[in-house]
Write a structure and sequence with these properties.
- The protein is of the alpha/beta class and about 475 residues long.
- It is about 35% helix and about 20% strand.
- The protein contains 14 helices and 21 strands.
- A 7-stranded mixed sheet has the order 1-2-6-5-3-4-7, with helices on both faces. It has a 5-stranded mixed sheet with strand order 9-8-10-11-12, sandwiched between helices. Strands 17-21-20-19-18 form a 5-stranded antiparallel sheet.
- The longest helix has 22 residues.
- It is globular and about 65 Å long.
Length: about 475
């Protein structure tokens, strides 16, 4: 879902709602959403229990406690997580605590002055469209009548979460390793969690940008090539074995090696598929978003693993993970879910598996093996803010897809936006963002430099289309 609801001016996302602080994301609008969720809980689920988390943005904690007090007023027992909460931690808290619903006050990777509400349901993943639409059907309804107030308690699931992550890795095999890792939390919610997972080992885990800064250092808390230059430099200069970076609410991951430099989400996903399937002998198919790089599919083909393409939005992977045996589900943006855990992105688990892979095999070796199997890959993503109506622009893009012929076109598909695949295997995709009023351009080639050239070509075409419309 990516429409804007006129009743509160929030943007509906695939797993909740987002808006601008003070403009859209206000106490009044948060209360409006809270009433709808409370009605859904009491009328449809017939339960009065919820858990709430929050990130490191302006007022997120205050919004969480405000919403918690309202839920309590409406007769719902409310549990608030005591620390800034990665969304994967909230998902764990929902399942481990037996809660029917969880909410995280977060806008994830979006700009500092955005905020939002993410929902996680009883299986630990994003809600289906039916659930979100049912909640939205209660927008504008009165608050539930409560005979008795609910309780409000503070909970801290972090120790149990860490124990769960530790149970899914070969902890005893790597206790003596002296690997050095640096984690860029991007001023977000993942501070100290990986250190907790590996407490009691010889591993050295250091942190970068681990203070809670609601400005996120002046950038969006989104891990990508451009935003991790300091991490890339430190990994190389300070002789770390590797580095990782997470987004603001801890459900995205990228990495960096001292010799190979930046590892995109496509590289990380391909390395994990290779490691989990070949070295850990774990079964299951792989699900990848339509904008995920070609290397993951090539690794799957090599290992004779089924690879399925899904539209962008991890809720699409969640549905697959609930109904079939999945090894890994991955998105272009760095979201990684593991089928032997919850149907949810959990990049602390992904990071822990990368640590294990480094200690037992070596990430450099795995990355080199991916290159031998799947060839070279360079990726570029660009956010374009349209100068006129983006629906008109995109309609024209679809109509003139054959004009985006940076080279000979092999095929065009419209699973999610449009994706133009060139005859040499390079590709270009253009689609709406589900969380911001922008168009996203994605490109892949043998090198990042060549991918940037495809992006520049596509951007010039978009600008010409805008000029024609205006």
């Amino acid at each position: 879902m990516s429409s804007r609801d006129s009743r509160l001016n929030f943007r509906s996302t695939s797993d909740g709602w987002r808006g601008k602080l003070a403009k859209d994301f206000t106490f009044d609008n948060v209360e409006l959403i809270g009433k709808a969720i409370a009605n859904y809980l009491l009328i449809d689920i017939k339960k009065k229990d919820i858990v709430i988390g929050y990130d490191t943005r302006f007022m997120s904690k205050e919004f969480a406690y405000f919403l918690g007090s309202k839920m309590q007023e409406w007769g719902i027992d409310t549990h608030i997580i005591s620390r800034p909460s990665p969304t994967p931690l909230l998902a764990f808290a929902v399942v481990s605590g037996g809660h029917p619903l969880g909410l995280n006050i977060t806008a994830s990777h979006n700009p500092p002055f955005d905020n939002g509400i993410k929902i996680r349901v009883d299986y630990g993943g994003a809600p289906t469209n039916n659930i979100t639409e049912k909640i939205e059907s209660y927008f504008g309804h009165d608050a539930p009548n409560s005979v008795a107030k609910g309780t409000l308690t503070v909970t801290n699931p972090i120790d149990n979460y860490v124990s769960k992550i530790r149970s899914m890795i070969s902890f005893d095999l790597i206790k003596e390793s002296r690997a050095r890792i640096i984690v860029d939390t991007m001023h977000g919610t993942t501070v100290d969690i990986l250190s907790r997972v590996f407490n009691g080992t010889e591993l050295q885990i250091n942190y970068l940008h681990n203070d809670f800064d609601p400005y996120f250092g002046g950038i969006n808390p989104e891990p990508k090539y451009e935003s991790t230059s300091e991490l890339q430099r430190l990994v190389k200069e300070d002789n770390y074995d590797f580095g990782i970076a997470h987004d603001g609410d801890g459900d995205r991951i990228v990495a960096s090696l001292p010799t190979d430099g930046y590892l995109s989400p496509h590289d990380v996903s391909a390395i994990l598929v290779l490691y989990l399937s070949k070295y850990k002998k774990l079964p299951g198919k792989v699900i990848g978003s339509s904008t995920l790089g070609r290397r993951v599919k090539r690794v799957c083909d090599h290992l004779k693993i089924i690879f399925e393409v899904m539209p962008v939005g991890f809720k699409n992977a969640t549905e697959g993970m609930l109904t079939s045996e999945v090894l890994l589900a991955a998105e272009e943006n760095g979201g990684v879910g593991l089928g032997f855990y919850l149907p949810e992105r959990d990049t602390t688990l992904a990071a822990s598996l990368l640590v294990e892979a480094q200690c037992l095999v070596g990430l450099k070796k795995l990355h080199d093996e991916v290159a031998l199997i799947a060839g070279k890959s360079g990726f570029c993503r660009y956010n374009h803010t349209p100068s006129c109506d983006r629906d008109l622009i995109f309609q024209k893009v679809v109509e003139t897809a054959n004009h985006f012929n940076y080279m000979d076109i092999s095929s065009v598909n419209d699973l999610d936006g449009i994706k133009i695949i060139y005859k040499n295997g390079d590709w270009l995709s253009i689609r709406y963002s589900g969380t911001e009023d922008i168009l996203r351009i994605y490109c892949e080639s043998d090198t990042r430099e060549e991918a940037v050239k495809i992006r520049d070509f596509a951007l010039s075409k978009l600008i010409k289309i805008e000029e024609q419309i205006k």
